[in-house]
Structures are given as C-alpha cells and as structure tokens.
Amino acid sequence: MQDLLGKHIVLGLTGGIACYKSAELCRLFVKAGATVQVVMTEAATQFMTPVTMQALSGRPVYVSQWDVREDNNMPHINLSREADAIVLAPCSADFIARLAEGRSDELLSLMCLARPIEQVPLLIAPAMNREMWAHPATQRNLQQVAADGATMLGVGSGWQACGETGDGRMLEPAQLLEDITAFFHAKLLVGQQVLVTAGPTFEALDPIRGITNHSSGKMGFAIARAAREAGAEVTLIAGPVHLPTPRGVRRIDVLSALEMLEAAEREAARASVFVATAAVADWRPASHSDQKIKKDGSGLPPVLNFVENPDILATVARSPRAASGALFCVGFAAESENLAAHAKAKRERKGIPLLVGNIGPLTFGQDDNSLLLVDADGVRELPRAPKLQLARELIAEIAARLPTRTSA
Ligand code: C5P
Predict the structure, then answer these.
(1) Where in the sequence numbering do the catalytic residues fall?
(2) Percent of the chain, pLDDT > 90?
(3) Residues linked to residue 331 through DSSP beta bridges, in sequence order
(4) Ligand 1 contact, 313 CB (< 6 A)
(5) What is the whole-number distance in angstroms between the Cα of residue 351 and the centre of ligand 1?
(6) Residue 280 Cα to ligand 1 middle (Å)
(7) Domain segments of the chain as ranges
(8) How far apart are CA 81 and CA 352, in angstroms?
(9) In b/e form, how buried is each residue of 88-106, taking b as 16+ CB within 10 angstroms?
(10) What is the dihedral of CA 63, 68, 74, 77, to 10 degrees?
(11) Of 83, 75, 78, 100, nearest in space to 34 by CA
(12) In this predicted structure, what is the pLDDT of residue 405?
C-alpha cells in the first residue's frame, strides 16, 4: 500500500553503523509512495556512500551547507521548507547533543534548526552503544530535544555491532516505516482504550489434537494497527496465529474460547471500544483427555461430545459498562449469502450498536475484503480494498459514533 503517497521526506543520516539500515529505510519510503531527499553529515559518509543513497532515493544527496547547486546557496532553507517531515535515522549521540544545544555548523543540524517547527515535524531514530544510550547526558539531551518539539521514535534492544547487548540499536526499517506512517494519521481515537479479539480459537481434545478453524487474524490485526495509528491505547487478544504484533499494541495470546472470554472480560473493564473479530469456535469438546486418545484396536472411533462455547461478544455487550454507553461494542459476521439480512438480525441478537458483515469465503486468508456496516440507521458498504485500508475506514466510522467527551 502506498501509505506515504504525496509525502516528501527529508531523510537525515548521521555517523553510525546503523547507516546500513538507512538504505533499506529509504527504499521502503519510496515504495510507500514518498519522495525522499537524503541529507548526510560528513561522518555518515564514512559508513554509507552518497552514491548508494542517491541511487535509492533518485535524487542527488546533500552533504555540505556550501552546496553550489542551490541558486540562492541556502540548502538549509530550501530543503527544510519542502519537507512534510525530517527523519533522522540514524541519529547519533553526538547529533542529539548538537540538536539539544541548537548548533548549526554543518548542513543537517543547520537545516533542523532552520525548519519551521510548527509545519515540519522532526522525527528522531537514535542509534548508539547501550552505555552511550543509558548515559545521563544522552537522556538529558533527548528530553531537551523532545521538549523543543521533536518526536522520538524509540530504540530497539538486542545485539549491537560493538558486540554488547542492550538498548540503543536503531529500530528496524520496517518498524520505522510503521511508526512514521502512523505519525501522519489523524488522531481520531486519542484517549480511547481499544480492545480487539482476533484469529481462531483452539479447542483441545487431548495434549496433541484439537479443533480450530482457518481464520488468519489479518482483519483483527489490521484493526488493532489502525486504532493505534489513530492514537488509541490498544490491546489485542489473539488466538493462535502467526502474525507480527502491530507496533505499540499490547498483545495477549490465548488458545481456547474460555481463555479468550476470561481475557476479554478482564480487559473490557477498562476499554472504551471493543471490536470482536475473532472466529471463536462455537463448540468445545465436553471433556479434555490428559493423555493422547489412542486407538483401542476395536476399529471404532472415539465418541466425541461437545458443549457450546460462551458468546464472548454478547457477554461483553451485556456488561453494565456497555449498557451505559461507556464501552462501544462492534461485532463481525461472516456469512455466505444474504449478508444484509443476516447482519441486521445478528446485530440485534448480540445487542450491539455496530455490526460489520462480510462474506466468509471472500475474506478468509485474503489480504483484501469488502465490508457491510450495519447500525441502527441502516447499511453502508465499504467497497473491496486491502484489509488495512478497510480497517482505517472502520476506525473512522467507529470514532464518528463514539460519544463526544466533555473535557474536564
Ligand atoms: O454468532 P457469530 O459467531 O456469527 O458472531 C460473530 C461475532 O461474534 C464476531 O464478532 C465474533 O468475534 C463474535 N463471537 C464471540 N464469541 C463467540 C462467537 C462469536 O465473541 N463464541
């Protein structure tokens, strides 16, 4: 998806081994539809050549404030005025110290100082050795730079090029892309706590086998990501799926419907929005064998008995907080035909304000889907599109339906 279409990003590289990741970051920006202008400090050119960055961005790189290519000889003004954001990745400890002091004796720091603070956000991806990161001087400088209006993108933890292990690694390019994409999204859900269930459940028969379904969890994970992009605090209760957790989302892994119910009821107690996308098994085995169920030589299969699982969505929707309007509940319905009629009936049966219908065989495992929104006022279709785009549209629809909160 071209999430950054129309955005112009000035990508600043400072001296650090993490520059090797900036080449990939530049490529991801371009793939996401952005135009990228690279600016490098002299130190950064020791780690990555401007030729590489020029080839990847499709634009000559700026390194010097005395660059004669600019008619007015003011690259620091011209470059910063065009940008939708300046992203410093990697941003070294030294460069953070320079920003904190407001220095401007080379092009990149000069450009950061010259940027119109209100119009051109400065996003910082630090990268350094763990001791440098933990040093009080660095932490003090980071606080100062944030107080001066920059946005900190955080650091990763793990093995470092110096051979030590700890905090201070630059985030991975894909993580930075996700965070920077989120940065540009309208903050429609600030102050909201969004709870999402996603994926299938697994109902164990014995320690080896169980009953599950083909739900991929993609829609629920996309909704969790979109809610986070919109500024909400997000908790994602996931059945057994192999999907990466969206950035900034708290994930709780569960297996069975009963575990999902327990987690959902606990977490719903402090949520303001509940979106149930999970494909919860309707039944679970009536008994669970502690040991593997063996063939007994008779040729007869074992007799399996089932009991109905609780309806997690309906249970949460019946809670006093949902009834009072403090918790807005959204359900999903996968149907095979007569979508509008089934969806309307299901919305009433579950006692929820908004139900999202989709055709099961057209969504399971797919990256695209189309949705039918059913509420008390009627029906609205969101036409076929990537699940992440639909999730963003759904989040906007949910935000528009939330009670407007009066500020204290
Ligand atoms: O009744 P049906 O399974 O079609 O309802 C689908 C909706 O109800 C989805 O939002 C699903 O997450 C939720 N559900 C649930 N607990 C169940 C069954 C369904 O939360 N046991």
Answers:
(1) 162
(2) 93
(3) 276, 355
(4) yes
(5) 12
(6) 6
(7) 8-184, 193-401
(8) 48
(9) bbbbbbbbbbbbbeeebeb
(10) -50
(11) 83
(12) 61
How much is the CA Rg of the chain, to the nearest whole Å?
A: 26
Element (H, E) at 312: helix 312-317
Nearest ligand 1 atom to the CA of 278 is 12
CA–CA dist 217, 236 (Å, integer): 11
Q: Is the CB–ligand 1 distance for residue 309 below 6 Å?
A: yes
Q: Is the CB of 312 under 6 A from ligand 1?
A: yes
Is residue 257 within 6 Å of ligand 1 at its C-beta? yes
Report pTM: 0.94
Rounded Cα gap, residues 140 and 261, in angstroms: 44
CA distance 340 to 358: 9
- Is the beta carbon of 44 within 6 A of some atom in ligand 1? no
DSSP secondary structure string for all residues of 90-135:
EE-HHHHHHHHHT--SSHHHHHHHHS-TTTS-EEEEE---HHHHHS
* CB 11 within 8 Å of CB 29: yes
The domain defined by 193-401 folds into: Rossmann fold (3.40.50)
Output the CA 111–ligand 1 centroid distance in Å.
53
**pLDDT mean values, one per 10 residues, the chain (408 residues):** 96 98 98 98 98 98 94 92 97 98 97 97 98 98 98 95 94 98 98 98 97 94 98 98 97 98 98 98 95 92 95 97 96 91 94 93 85 95 96 98 70
Alpha carbon of 313 to ligand 1 centroid (Å): 6
> Hey, which bits of 160-281 come out as E strands?
165-169, 193-198, 203-204, 210-211, 233-238, 250-253, 273-276
**Residue pLDDT, tens place only, 112-150:** 999 999 999 999 999 999 999 999 999 999 999 999 999
Domains 8-184 and 193-401 belong to one CATH topology: yes
Is-contact 135 186, C-beta < 8 A? no
Fold of the domain spanning 8-184: Rossmann fold (3.40.50)
Q: Is the dihedral of CA 50, 54, 57, 63 positive or negative?
A: positive
Collapsing DSSP to helix, strand or coil, 77 comes out as: helix
**Quick one: tokens of 15?**
């001296």
Q: Name the token pair of 298.
A: 């008779």
Residue 279: CB atoms within 10 A of its CB come to: 24
